[in-house]
Amino acid sequence: MTYILCVLALLSLEGCFTGVESTKAITQKDVERAYSGAIDDATASMIEIKLDTFPRWEMGKRFYVADNNIRYLFSPSAQFNADTLALEGKTIAYDGYTKSISIDGRPVVNLHFKYDKTSLQYNTNRTMDDLTQRTTRFEVPFLIDLNEVERLKTVLQGKSLYIKTSIWYDRAGEMTWGRKYVKVTITDVLPGDKVFPYKVEFDDDGRTAYVFMSYRDNYLHRGLDDLFSTTDLRLRYPLISNENWQRIINGQIATDMTKEECRLSMGAPDNLERVPTYNGVREYWYYSNGAYLIFDEEGLLTTFRR
C-alpha cells in the first residue's frame, strides 16, 4: 500500500509539469509590482510647483483655454453665442466672483472671467466654505493656470536631464517616436492640453520635441520624475552590453535579451503568463498593442512580435 501511494504521488507531481497547464492568472497589479519603479529616482524633489487655488486667485490672473468645450460650461449670456464662441488656445483672465442662491438654497460661488470685452461666468455649484476647506484644489475644467506654467519654465528651462520615455510629440501635437535614456536640454515650458497641463519642450541633439506633464495631484499622474531623470540611467546597468543599450535607447529588442533589458526597451507588459515546463518556467509578456515576448526558462528572449 505504501508503494502504491508513493507511485500515485509521483504521478501526480509529474502531471503538474506537462508544459501545457499554466499557472494561476497574473493580474495587472502583479505586473506593476513586479516591473514598475525599477528606475525611480529623486527627480521629483528637484521642483516644487506652487499650485494656486481659488479663493486665493488675484484679479487678472490668466488662464489658457485647452479645449473649446469650455464654452458650454459658462452661463448663457447675451454677449456671446455658445455655439460659435471659439476659445481654445486663447487666454482668459479672472475677473472676481459673486454669489447666488442655488436651487437647493445654498449660497454658491460664481467665478467671472474676461475674454477681450466678453464676460464669462462659471457656476461652481459650491459654497465658499466648501471651496476653502476642500483637501484637493478646485479646478475649472479645460483651464490651465499660466502662472504655474511660468514657474515651471523658470525652474526647468536650460536644464539638461535624461529623458525616460520614447513617446514624444512634435510641434503640432502629433505623437512621434523618440529615444530614451539620453541627455536632452529643456528649452521651454508651454501650456499643455485638457489632460496634462504642461507641455515641456526639449532639444535632443538638434531635434526639437515635446512631452506632456502633469502636477503631482493630477488624477492622471505624469510628473517630472516619470519623464526625466537627473542621473544617467546607464550607470545603473553596467552588465548590459553597449549593443543592447543602444537597442534599448531606440526601443528595439533582439533574441537573447534578458527580461530586464526588454522591460527597459518596451516598458512593463500589460499582462504576463508563466507556464511550467520540464526545465523550469517560461514567461509570456503581452502588450495592449498586440506585441508579445516569450522568454525561455533561463529568462532570455526567444520569440517576439513587435
What structural category do the secondary elements indicate? alpha+beta
Indicate the radius of gyration in whole angstroms. Answer: 27 Å
Euclidean distance between termini CA atoms: 55 Å
Strand-residue fraction? 25-35%
Count of spatially separate domains? 3
Sequence of secondary-structure elements = HHEEEEHEHEEEEEEHEHHEEEE
Q: What topology, given as strand order, has the largest sheet? A: 4-3-2-1-5
Stretches where pLDDT is under 50 for at least 5 consecutive residues are: 3-25, 27-40
Enumerate how many helices there are, as a single number.
7
Give me the oligomer status.
single chain
Please provide the count of β strands. 16
Question: How would you sum up this structure, described in words?
Answer:
The chain has seven helices and 16 strands. By secondary structure, it is α+β, with helices and mostly antiparallel strands. It has three domains: 16-38 and 253-305; 42-49 and 148-234; 62-142, no CATH class. Strands 4-3-2-1-5 form a five-stranded antiparallel sheet. A five-stranded antiparallel sheet has the order 11-10-9-6-12. The chain has helices at residues 2-15, 28-35, 128-133, 146-156, 224-227, 242-249, 259-266, and strands spanning 62-65, 91-101, 107-115, 118-127, 143-145, 160-163, 167-169, 175-177, 183-191, 198-204, 207-213, 228-229, 271-277, 280-286, 292-295, 301-305. It starts with a helix and ends with a strand. The longest helix is centred in the N-terminal third of the chain and has 14 residues, at 2-15. It is 19% helix and 31% strand.
